[in-house]
Every structure is written in structure tokens, then in C-alpha cells.
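From the pipeline queue, job 12 of 40. The input is one protein chain; the requested action is below.

Action: predict structure.
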Amino acid sequence: MTSTYALLQERLSGAFSALSPGADPVLRASEHGDYQANGVMALAKSLGRNPREVAGEIVARLDLEGVAEVEVAGPGFLNLTLTTPFLGAQLREIAANERLGIAPAAPRRVLIDYSAPNVAKEMHVGHLRSTVIGDALARMHRFVGHEVIPRNHVGDWGTPFGMLIEHLIDLGEENAVASLSIGDLDSFYKAARTKFDADEAFAERSRARVVALQSGDPETRRLWQILVDESVVYFSQVYDLLDVSLTPEDVVGESAYNALLAGVVDDLAAAGLLVESGGAWCVFPAGFTNREGEPLPLIVKKSDDGYGYAASDLAALRQRVGELHADDLLYVVGAPQAQHLEMVFAVARMAGWLPASVHCEHVAFGSVLGTDRKMLRTRAGVSVKLVGLLDEAITRANEALVERHVALDDESRDELALQIARAAIKWADLSTERQRDYVFDLERMVSFEGETGPYLQYAHARQRSILRRAQDTWSLAAAPFALAERAERDLALGLVALPEALESALALSQPHKLCTYLFDLAQRFTAFYEACPVLTAPEGTRDERLALCELSARTLATGLSLLGIDAPDRM
């Protein structure tokens, strides 16, 4: 089905273009009617005509019979009010459509690079935003019909692995695996670092082990693989706990591109792009300068003949476009990496590896702050572990359920507490415009009031409670949708707006656009529920209001699922 917004936009664009080819209105929800179209004044200025006169001509050309009534307001705004029969028909189409009116998109191959923890290190709060934002974008792209290629670009290569492998040898494989298998990666790493700093003989062994690793020594690579495999098992446990869709098969670490690095450098040299600077081989993409205004290099091969992050990032991008044939590349990486990624993209374009037909985007995000508005850390000043955050959120959620006297057995309450904890953490992150920092305040986040994940979950559970009490004595297909009450109409307008909310979230890679829509819908439902009795309403009205409850529940559940949030039926 064509969404309400898309239908209105199409008809309006046709009328605008008839007066001036390429002219387009800006359509948005409004209190003055259901929608308001702006752009008349800009069009009138370009035509040298009176805005209200131009608005009148647009209205005369508009084909909205049976769809909406149009009023010219002010200096040239167009206020559109949908007819009740049309709005009711839209609701019936949504009711009969398991996708709630969201049409499948023309399929594209969308590669999303996200999460990216480091081998032999535990996941901490610094990985939260990349993981949660990336997973939400993956779910949304899959829902509209795109083929999603997740890439978990883990840090599994480099000089630290020499000391880690030597520490594994000192412990013995069995003891080392036992330590790593319980998720105690940080202790393993810190012990190796302590020995490296204090014991010169260990440090020498570690440096020699790095050479062996990079030269492909079979035994060294076998020991390295143990560290990688145990770390990937741990990462998967964290993803399962958070209900994140990444799998071990999505892990493609830095090491996967080692064999491609020499080719990257050789081809850049053949293209005349490499410049020697201070013993290193670099590319100087146009437009990038340091504080002194000097050209800024992207170092692809260091003076010691080692390869830096830029080389592996270029190799990955080249492979993703050339072999995986991705149409879209989304890098869900923190804002501090903006310049590095921009330079990598620029060099890839210079080399011809990133054609104009491929959309490449840095999906940047801000930081997670503590309630003191500083970077979220423990009292000891170290990064907070992700598992610890979720454990604390689960405890808070359990306490909230006990306080609310929710009648559940222990197992059911623990499962519900986990769902609430996930919702609290994910919603706080995703409902914030991703470029902004946000404050991690669990007391607020697990609240059932305000703009929180648990509030949305509770709204859905309340809708399901109403429907259970109705005992299937009504028919969704037969609902009349007279929408006689203002609160019914407002809720209906919210229900038909899901497609454009999802479209906006995807177009901008901004999950908060979908969050804003879902919170608004929940508020519309609350206003409806308070103003319009459901179960005690007369028979025809009762069916209509139950149908609005059903569609609200379906919409909230679908929207939350696209964010990776459960929608429990009971709370």
C-alpha cells in the first residue's frame, strides 16, 4: 500500500511541478489540520507572484478528492485535513497488512561495520553505542527488504599479541582457556602487560613472538587462534545477553586483510598516489590539513615497513566493494574517528575503489556520560564493563517489578527484568540523536514513566491487557472507524505515520527518528485511553476502539522490535 504521507507528497509535488518543474513542497504533521505543506512562498518568490495566488492555483490543480480537504492559511501555507473515510480505509489496509503499510524497498546490499571489540579484552561502555546503533540499523534495513552484511571488525592483530601468546604459553593452554572461557579477558590482558613491563626476558620473547606471528609461523598462529576463538565466544555471550543479532560468522577482524595490504600499497604506488614522507609511505588527499595548514598524510606503510590502520581499512573497503559488491557502506564508529574515516574514503575514491554509485557513510555517535556529565567510568577510573551495566539494570528492573507488585513466579520475573533492562539501556541510547552525548542514569532509564524503554513496553502491555479482557468478542476486519472523537482521530493519524518514520530513520541513519515516533504514538494512545472508554463503550464503538488498541499494539511491537527491544504482553 502507498502510505498516507507518500500519497499526499506525490499529489502535492505534481501540483507544484506543474507551476515550476522541480519545485517540491515540504510536508509535515501539523496542529492546523493533519498535515501542513510549506514551500509555496519560495515557489511564489521564484515566479515573482503573490504567494496566496500561487497557493490557490496549487489547490486548483490538486487531485485530493476523497482524500483530504485543503485550506490556504496565512501568507501561503496549505493545511490538509484527511477525510474520515480515507483515514478509515488506510487503517483497514494496515490491519490487513502484516507489514503495517510499510512497502518493501528496492533491495540493496548494505554492509554495516559495527561493534568492533578487541580480542583478549572485555567489552565496555565504549562499545555500547556502536553495538546498539549498528544492530538497530541492521534490523531496520532487513525489515524493508535489504540484504544486510554485518561486519564485526574486531581488533585481532598487532604487537600486543606477542605478549598475550607468551602469557598463554606461561600459563599453559588448559589454564589459559579456563581463564578466558569465564569471560575474564581483562585479567588475562593485564597480567600479560604487567609481565611485559616488568620482565625484560618476557618482553624479548614477546617481540620475537610478534615477528613469528606476522611471518605466519604455524604454532604461533595456532596459539593466536585460541585467543581469538575464546574472545569470540565471550563476545557472543555479551551479544546474546543484550539481544544483539551479531554472530561469530560476522566477525571479520583486522587479520583477515593481512594478505591484501601489500597489494593496496602497490596499487596506490602504481596509481601515482604514494608519497614518501619521513620514511613512511603516505597519500595526501586534497582538503585535509593540520593545525599549521600543512597537507595531512594518510600513512599506509610506516617507516618500519609495518602497515597501519589506514592500510587495513583501505583493504577492507576495497574488498567490500569489489568482492562483496556492497551498494551501501555504513561505518558505525565514534565521532573522534571522523577525520580518519573521511581520509580513508577520500583515498579510496582517488584510487577508484569507491565509485560514486556506492553510498559510503560514517555513522558517527557521541559518548556515554555518567551523571556527573563526564565519561562514564567506575570509581577506580576504568571503563565500565557492558555486562556489569546490564547486570545493574536487571537488578533495578527486578526491584521495580517487586515495588509494582507484579504477580509473577521467579523465573518469569527474571526474564521480564532482563527484557526491561535491555529496553532501558537500548532506548536511552537510540532515542538520543546519535551525534550527541547522553547521560547514563539507570534510575531514570528503568522508570515506567517518561520517555523510557519500559514506558513503551508498559504501553504495549496495557494494550494487550485490554484486548485479553475483550475475550475475542469483536472483529478487527469489521471495525467501522468512524473516528468521531478527537482522541480516536489523533491516534489513527499516529498509526498511519509509521512508514515515513521508518523511512526517515533509514535515510538519515538516525534510529532516534523511529524512537520519537513510537513515543509520540504511546502518548497518543494514553490520551485516547483516558478520553475514550473501550470495554464499556456501545457495541459498534467498542469494536472500533478495540481495533485501535490492536493496531497500536502491533505498531509498538513492530517498532520496538526494529530497535532490538522486546514488547512483553504482560508487565
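Job complete. Residues 160-246 form one domain.
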